[in-house]
Amino acid sequence: MKRFDKEMTYTEGEGVVERFNDGTVTYSFEEAKKVLATLKPKKFTLADAIMLILYAQPDKPIFGRILLVKEIFLLTNEVLKDEVQDGNFVPYHYGPYSFTLGNILSNLEFAGYVDRTGKRNSRLEHFKLTSKGKEVAAKIWDKVSPSVQIEIQEKRKGWDQLGVKGILKLVYKNYPKFAKESYVKGRYKAISWGRGIG
User: Are 80 and 177 in contact (CB under 8 A)?
Assistant: First the structure.
């Protein structure tokens, strides 16, 4: 079991109580209240992002977990941006992956909002909203401005058309730091012809 070493920092009264080498900090109760008061709540959660991407084409499932995760990654980075909870995406086997997102997706499936069918972790696996999920997603959809609704629908269509290979090329090209742990990054390198990149 990996153990994080910590540098103990105690202060009298208020302030930092512990500072860990991985960057984690614990605060006294009073200091934690002050920090919490400065935080601006996000308009959307990761669960909302899942519901939004599936609701953009409610009768068309997304095929494959890789495609779903990459579409949510792009949705949070290119459309919702600062309005959505941080997905804590890390470089992983097929580009950016969020363990938090994976847990939330499982919870939405368990709660009956998302229907997952097909062979798990394959292109035959597909995700779509249940009727209960569509009711909840419609309320989240109403929080989005009409122009952003159109943008999400257009992006979803485009990303679906790219498929897994195309979306991986797009992600690796635009977010190269997420390709470093990838099993397949060599298959999706940009081709250089003279001055441009193809």
Answer: no
